[in-house]
Structures are given as C-alpha cells and as structure tokens.
Amino acid sequence: MNDFKVTPWEVSGDIDYDELITRFGTKRIDEEMLHRLAKYGPLHPMLRRGVFYSQRDLEWILDQYDKGNKFFLYTGRGPSGHIHLGHLTPWIFNRWIQDTFDVKLYFQMTDDEKFLFNDNLSLKDTKNFAYENALDVIALGFDPAKTKIVLDTDCIKLLYPLALEVAKRVTFSTAKAVFGFDNSNNIGEIFYTSIQAAPCFIEHALYGKATPCLIPCGIDQDAHFRVARDVAPMIGMPKPALLHSKMFPSLSGGDKMSSSEPNTTIFTTDNPKTVKKKIGQAFTGGAVSVEEQRKNGGRPDICAVFKYQFILFEPSDEAVDRLAERCRKGEVLCGECKQILTERITKFLEVHQQKREEAKEKVQDFMLSSKC
Amino acid sequence: MNDFKVTPWEVSGDIDYDELITRFGTKRIDEEMLHRLAKYGPLHPMLRRGVFYSQRDLEWILDQYDKGNKFFLYTGRGPSGHIHLGHLTPWIFNRWIQDTFDVKLYFQMTDDEKFLFNDNLSLKDTKNFAYENALDVIALGFDPAKTKIVLDTDCIKLLYPLALEVAKRVTFSTAKAVFGFDNSNNIGEIFYTSIQAAPCFIEHALYGKATPCLIPCGIDQDAHFRVARDVAPMIGMPKPALLHSKMFPSLSGGDKMSSSEPNTTIFTTDNPKTVKKKIGQAFTGGAVSVEEQRKNGGRPDICAVFKYQFILFEPSDEAVDRLAERCRKGEVLCGECKQILTERITKFLEVHQQKREEAKEKVQDFMLSSKC
C-alpha cells in the first residue's frame, strides 16, 4: 500500500491513481467506453488524455440516455477562497457534457461545509466566497436555462428533507470508516455528507422525478458519493453515477494545486505580472544548465508546465506528443515552455476575467434559491 | 446513585427529582424565588406545588425583565403521535408565563427529530403530526400575535445557520457524553441537538437582537440546553434560561405518561367513554377491599388519580390538602376519586376538543414559516 491519502479534506503524498481505482472500487474509463462516448460527439481532450479516467455506473447513465431518459449533471465547489485553475478543470469538462448531451447541471456551493471545516471562516465569509466563485462558474459560459447554482444555506429548505433521508441511514460507524472522523470532529462535520448527498436526488424534490444523476468531480470527492450511492436504493432513488478526474497539479510539481499555497497556484483573478512570476518559478524537473538540458533532455512526466499544457491549454494531441518528444530530446528548454504557457494562461485569464465581470449581471439567473 | 435514567429519549426507573438537580447541576426553585415570582402575579399552582421545581438562570431573566429587557419563551414538541395530558402540562404553564409577563413564545415542532429517531415514521408522518399537534397548542388559547409555531422543516432556512454555529462548537465527544450516543447512532441524530438549540437564538436571526430566552420544559429535555448553554457565549449570545418540570405521571402509576402505552394515557382526542374506562383502570395504590381501605386509608403519594388532581385539575391548594388528608384516613374511596377525576377530565376535554376544532381555521396565523 502506498503512503498517500485522498479524502475530501486531505490529498497528500504521491498519488497512485491506478491504486485509487482498486482502493475505491471504481471502474477505469477504458477504450470501449471512450469508443462509446465518441458516438455522442468529439471526445473532450480530458477524456482522451485520461484526466477524467475513472467512473461508476457510466454505462447505465448512457443506457438510460439512449432510451430517452436524460440524466442531470451535479458538481460543486466548497467556497473557502478564490478560484484557481485546478477548480476550473472539472467545470470546463461539465460544460462539455452539458453541451454534448444537452442536459441540466446543478452546481452546489457548500458554504455550510467550508464554515464547519474551517476554524477561521465565518458563515458570512463562505457565503461571500460562494458568490465570488459563482462568477467563475458563470464566466465559463454555462446556459442559464439549464444550469442552476445551489447555495446550501439559501436552498436548505429544499435540501434538508433529502439530507434527513440520507442521514437517517448513515451511522457514525460508517462516517468514521469512510471519512476518518473521530470523537474530536464537530457534529456538523459528521452530518455534512448528508447535505452533499442531497443534490443527487434534487429533481425528486423539485419535480417528483427520480432522474438519473451524473457527477463529474475530482476523485478526492468519491467518499461522499460512496455514502450517497449506498443510501440511494434504501430511499427508492437511483444511485448517482460518477466520473472521476485526477487532481490538477501544483506549480511546485505536487499532486494538487491548493489555495493554501498561493505562490504555486494560478488564481482566476491573478494579473499578467503575477502569472508570469508564478510560472517563472514553476517546477519543471529540467536540468540546472542549458548545456546539460540540451544533452540529457527534460522530463515532461514530472514537469508542472507540461502538465498544464496537457490538461488545459493544448487542444491538439499531436502537439502535446511533439512537445513531450522535443523536451525529452533536449530540443526545447524550460524557459521557452514557460513563456508559451505564460502567454496562454494570460490570454485565457484576460477573456475569463472579462466574462467574470459580465457575470455579475447574471448571477440571479443562475441561483436556484430564487425558485425555492 | 439510583438506577433511573432521564434523557430526551428515555425516561425509566423511579425518578429521584432531587437527585436530578444534583446530577444536572440545576438550581431548585426555592421559597425566595417563589416569593419573587409572586410579585408579577398570582403564582401558578404548578409552581406552588413544585411541579415546575428546578431552574437555570431564572434570577438573571427576572433581573433583565425588571430592567425592561423582556425575555421570550421557547418550548416545543416532538410530533411523533397524538397529544396527551402530559404534553399539555408545560404548555399550560407557558401560557401562564406569557400572560403574566406579556412575552412572546416560539413553539418548536421537531418533525426532523422524530423522523430521525423513529424507524417507523416518515417525514410526512411527523409533519402531519406536527399540524395535528399544533391544533392542541392553539386550543390552549395562546395569543397569535405573540405566539409563533416553528416547524423545523418549514423554518429550516432560518434555523440552519444558527444550528451550524452551534454544531461547529460541539464535538462528537460532547454529544456522546451528554446524550449517550455511540457508533450506531445515525449522523442525523448526532447533529440534531444543534437544531433544538437554534430557537434559543431565533430573535437574533429574525431581528438582530440577542434577546434573553426562557425555556419551560420537562427536565428530560435539559441535556439539549446544557449543550446550547455551553455554546451560547462562544457565539456571543446569552445563555438560555430554563424552568424544569417533573414528568407527568402515567395512569399506571409510572413516572411518565407515554404515547407508547395508550391504555394508561389520556389523549386529547379521547371520547368520554374511553376516558371513563382508562381512569377506571388507573393505579391508585388503594386497598383491595373497601373495608381495608376504610381501615388503613389510601396512599395519595403514589396514587395516579391524586397526582392528576394535584398537577392539573384542582386549582385550590386547600382542596388538594383536604383530599390527601381524607384519603389517608380512609374517608374517601378510590371509586369516588376516579369518578370526580373522570368528570373533570371529560369536561376539560369537551372544551379542549371544541377549541381544537376551531383551531383548524387559525393554524396559518400561528405558523412562523409564513414569515420566513
């Protein structure tokens, strides 16, 4: 067993993503599944490149879809700070599924969770971050007619009865085993997974329909939905299906970009100067001298700059392969790569920040609370 | 240590009420306090006779009141079935405080609690009982302008942020110690005390005011408010004060009238024939023969019929003392007492049932949910 940890509240060590499939009992997205998915539209690069690499019950979701029983998407965000590129990755992927399958998305903002799990945040803080973060969601171009943001404390009247149905069927033993809780956890933390499970069944509360639910999320969130999946049949609901992504890497080369390490994290609100500085200091694994790099080549497998192109910024698989090849041969130096990535991120953020400003006028169109 | 148990979910054994004061660390309502209370209006029989016999911070509540800082009342009901006389006792007392001090009352209906703690009840069941039970509250003549019924699932948007503030500051260790939880309790049960604590601070949520709160309730509910009182200063709120009553006895002579033993319990919906039958079978502790009873006398100290007169139906202290005296001397037989009590309960229920019917038109005036 490798010495790494992946839970909703802690990701540490060198993650072995194959091992996680075994550990969590999920299913790899294999060639056959990619082939099937390609029938609905051009495969997203994050699928082709194995960024979204694991699933639960995706076959069933597609079977239902093929029979005319559309699923809805459910994803979310714990609003404890500003948004970075690692947060955007699964959201961009959600947008692709929404467009490809023409389906609804419920986007949960867990202001209650972040309040309960952070000593230094007030409920007002997390609610403010929720509105700030909603701007980043909206900026990605979701269709307001098909996308609703579910702010927990605002939509609690809708969520609470669903959460109670879940909570009644989850013992502290289970919560301990799944989340690693002990006697020092507060009773809100212990209850919270019920609230994260609730949107899996939200269409039943809204429309009386047991609509299939597909959750694209980081694999660190799987624990919550293992609980939700265990409970679903007990309350007469279909188990939510999942699509798991790997973590978005830190600029330091670590496995997960984290808001708590701002120098190795690109926030959507960063200005070009800051981006340049952060990318300039990024970990690449390159050699100490130009001479040596030319001779021995670089290491795209551990290079943060390469991973960013790979995950988010280079749409062409061929270009990615060529870049890796040239790097390994020493034909491209880290400085060049950093410059290209800096330009791409700067351009991306310029557009995003513009759309984020425009989003301020649209927030109410996206909030579910105005409907419940 | 006596072998009895008093928690919000279990009352068993022969309760030693004096011992409970020590065990819970509350304060007896002594002569000095009764003297002070008498200044606000004629003392209620339940105070004179020690039915409400224990308190926390009542001096402070009265000090604040004397300075012009009015408290509000908070009491409640777990809607898991129909209402019996034992439920009405503290509500009648609340009505007296409301009238005497001209204060508001928030009446919590914990449909969520009863759902979480009862395998056989759905949330729909407990919500239905909540509306049924509300009729009994309203029938007691509370002023709708000063009385609001807080149905948890309906008012959760107001209660949840308050509950989160509490939950963040209560560990599982504390919940275990106070409520006797273990690993087999469900995570909703563990969280629930936060929801019962929330109305202590409801005026802060509604009006931004840290209004003093006084909770008249059965002493079995004390555990919830020990938790609420510990947390209050941490969130900048005054500790809720308490007035504790003894349990309303069962007709079998047991310490607590219980819905789960319908034959020894008078429900507000019982008809005269049922009342007559139940009282006829009540435990009195009297002798097996008339002859023996005339000779040795009865035992009002353990007689359920006497306790009912004492607690609820005989307003005159003198008449109560005289009845006890006559019973001990064998001057009154159990049959006579049962007949008098039957008549009084029948008359009381006739009026109550009429008012309960009229209450059906008034429910919306009393529900807080229409305001939040």
**Assembly state here?**
homodimer
Q: Give the beta-strand count of chain A.
A: 9
Main beta sheet of chain A? 7 strands, mixed
Q: Reading side by side through the largest sheet of chain A, how are the strands ordered?
A: 3-4-9-8-5-6-7
Distance between the termini of chain A: 47 Å
Order of helices and strands of chain A: EEHEHHEHEHEHHEHHHHEHEHHHHHH
Helical content of chain A stands at 40-55%
Gyration radius of chain A, in Å:
21 Å
Biggest interchain interface, per-side counts: A-B, 34 and 34 residues
Discrete helix count of chain A: 18
What percent strand of chain A? 5-15%
Low-confidence stretches of chain A: none
Mean pLDDT of chain A: 94
- What structural class should be given to the helix and strand makeup of chain A? alpha/beta
Tell me, what's the shape of chain A?
globular
Overview of the molecule:
Two copies of one chain form a homodimer. The first copy, chain A, contains 18 helices and nine strands. The first copy, chain A, has helices at 17-24, 31-37, 45-48, 58-66, 85-101, 111-117, 123-139, 156-167, 172-179, 187-197, 202-207, 222-231, 272-280, 290-296, 304-313, 317-328, 334-359, 363-366; strands spanning 5-7, 10-12, 27-28, 52-56, 72-77, 105-109, 147-151, 213-218, 241-245. In chain A, the strands form two sheets. The first copy, chain A, has a seven-stranded mixed β-sheet with strand order 3-4-9-8-5-6-7, sandwiched between helices. The longest helix of chain A has 26 residues, at 334-359. In chain A, helix 6 packs across helix 7 (123-139) and helix 13 (272-280) packs antiparallel against helix 17 (334-359). By secondary structure, the first copy, chain A, is α/β, with parallel strands linked by helices.
